[in-house]
């Protein structure tokens, strides 16, 4: 485990490491000079300034989050203002609503998602898209996005905003304040700007002490 630090000058970003492609997220954090920490137990969340929920298999992730009592402390971390990024399965874990009956897990992002929404031929695909919500001037970033058995964001509720769509209008990223859920995988595409946003948010935010 990485050294712990409460200093906001060098924020420590947790990466949920119970399942999925957490290693790629830790590598991306390292690439941009940020400190990452694997999170498996509630104690690993102490002193974090931000958290990443990686892609993987949301059903397995859901079970492990409950088994290791991580749901309440992650919700608490978000409520204290820490930026939270969920990619792919991580975005499903963040969603308030999941189509076709699955219970929501963290309910931190006011969207409805559908798992594996892009069908068989499109199990994996890449697309260039415009992503808003990351730049302080409100402008868009052009991003090369990699989708792997990705969820679609079917609807965005009043508390959240759409920050990226495909050319056909399907929503693939949404933000609610400090919580960002995206259907694609920046950590696989060599894309560092989403992680940079998270680290900058973490640096700017004074995270309230744990309750
Ligand atoms: N299809 C996976 C799920 O529903 C998500 C895929 C991914 O994270 N790349 O959990």
Tell me briefly what this model is.
The chain has helices at residues 22-31, 58-67, 71-79, 89-94, 186-189, 193-204, and strands at 12-16, 35-39, 50-53, 84-87, 95-98, 109-114, 124-131, 141-148, 152-156, 161-165, 171-176, 179-182.
Write up this protein.
This protein has 211 residues and is of the alpha/beta class. The chain has one domain (6-204): Class I glutamine amidotransferase (GATase) domain (Rossmann fold), CATH 3.40.50.880. The protein is globular and about 45 Å long. It has a seven-stranded mixed sheet with strand order 2-1-3-4-12-11-10, sandwiched between helices. Strands 5-6-9 form a three-stranded mixed sheet. Strands 7-8 form a two-stranded antiparallel ribbon. The protein contains six helices and twelve strands. The chain has helices spanning 22-31, 58-67, 71-79, 89-94, 186-189, 193-204, and strands at 12-16, 35-39, 50-53, 84-87, 95-98, 109-114, 124-131, 141-148, 152-156, 161-165, 171-176, 179-182. The structure holds glutamine. Glutamine is lined by residues 55-58, 88-89, 92, 115-116, 148-149.
